[in-house]
Amino acid sequence: MSLQYRVSDQVLRVDDSRDATEAIVHKYDAFLNLLCANRYAFQRDAIRTAMRFLVSDKYPDLERLARENWNNRDCIRQRHDGGLDAFLDTMPLRDRKAATLDLATGTGKSFVMYGLAASGLAQTAPLEVDRGWITQGRSGHYVSEPPESAYPAAEFRPDVPGSGPGTPANGPDRQGSRTG
Questions:
Q1: C-alpha dihedral, 133 to 138 to 140 to 146, nearest 10°
Q2: CA distances (Å), 37 to each of 51, 121, 123, in order?
């Protein structure tokens, strides 16, 4: 007799809907609604779930989340018949607040990672979000220029490939020679 497992049954569930956690997660609703509009709502849900784990003090590390799921879900215990220790041994970063984001090919993992990163940055520093930047990702063109303050160390020109975020301000200098 073969055993069959559903992938969705093996995903660790984050169960923290306390007011403090939800207040942080929902602080970014306007941003996430723009980033993940219409048919991309599943990305918003993925971002919110990951954010709940990352901002929750209920889960100081992955091991706490894994233990909770082990104790509350039969499907995980059935899949890992070597016991809790064997289950935890499959998680090399269990002593940290770490996890993987598993989404099918072509479903927008980059947008999910961007949404998490931008929200995480906003937790520590104000972040301006221009609707034109978000629209560019979905349609392939910029609706408006980015705010001048967005990347002060880099000259950003949407019409010049490689001039965007992450481009060193002192890359090839104005005379065409390399610095450094």
A1: 0
A2: 18, 21, 22
Q: How far apart are CA 156 and CA 142, in angstroms?
A: 12
The single-letter code of the amino acid at 162 is G
Q: What is the 3-state secondary structure (H, E, C) of the chain?
A: CCCCCCHHHHCCCCCCCCHHHHHHHHCCHHHHHHHCCHHHHHHHHHHHHHHHHHHCCCCCCHHHHHHHHHHHCHHHHHHCCCCHHHHHHCCCCCCCCCCCCCCCCCCCHHHHHHHHHHHHHHHHCCCCCCHHHHHHHHHCCCCCCCCCCCCCCCCCCCCCCCCCCCCCCCCCCCCCCCCC
Cβ-in-10-Å burial (0-12, 13-18, 19+) of 68 comes to: middle
Write the pLDDT tens digit of every residue in 84-126.
Answer: 999 999 999 999 998 888 888 889 888 899 999 888 877 765 4
pTM of the predicted model, to two decimals?
0.66
Q: Which residue has the tokens 């091991």?
A: 63
Tokens of 20: 């403090």
Domain boundaries defined on the chain: 7-126, 128-170
